[in-house]
Amino acid sequence: MGLDILLYSQHRQNVAVAAPYHPVCELSRDFSLVTWVDKYVGEVENSACLELSREHIQQLKERLDCAIATLTEGNEDNPLLLRRLQYVFILRDRLESLLSDFDFEHEYLWFYAAW
After folding, report:
1. DSSP labels for 56-79?
2. Integer Cα distance of 83 and 86 in angstroms
3. Other beta carbons less than 10 A from residue 19's beta carbon
4. Is the pLDDT of residue 1 over 70?
5. So what's the pLDDT on residue 29?
6. Which of 114, 108, 105 is nearest to 24 (CA)?
C-alpha cells in the first residue's frame, strides 16, 4: 500500500443528507503535495477530506510556477530534475483546469489522501 491522493467534488446543499462525492482527478503519489496541503490548508490525516478553495488552488499553482522557473534554469541536462519538472507541469495543468472549469460556488472540492 502506498500513498493515494485524490480530489473529489460534492454539491453544496443546505439539506441534512450529504450529497455524494464525485472523483475529479487522481494526483501523483507525491509527499511534497501532502506537505504543502498540511502547511497551507490544514492537517492532512489518513483517509480524511480537507476542503480546498479557489484561493488554495491559485496559491499552489503560483508556487508551481515558481518551481518551474527554478527547476528549468541551468538544469536542462539533468534527467532527474527534468522528470520532476514533467510532474510539476502536469500538476500545474490540472490546477489551471480546475481554476477555469470547476464551479467553486456550487461545489466543494475535497483533497483526500490515504496511506
Report:
1. HHHHHHHHHHHHHHHHHTT-TT-H
2. 5
3. 13
4. no
5. 82
6. 108
Residue 97 identity: S
Q: What is the pLDDT of residue 91?
A: 93
pLDDT of residue 30: 85
Matching residue, cell 485524490 = 6
Cβ atoms of 38 and 95 closer than 8 Å: no
Q: Can you tell me which residue has the cell 450529504?
A: 18
**Grid cell for residue 20:** 455524494
| Residue closest to 44 by CA, chosen among 9, 12, 11, 3 | 3
Torsions phi, psi for 27 (to 5 deg):
-105, 160
- Across all residues in the chain, what is the average pLDDT? 90
Amino acid at 55: E
- 47-70 per-position pLDDT tens digit: 999 999 999 999 999 999 998 888
Q: Pairing mode, if any, of strands 4-11 and 21-27? A: antiparallel
- 38 contacts 56 by C-beta, under 8 angstroms: no
The residues with which 27 forms a beta bridge, in sequence order, are 5
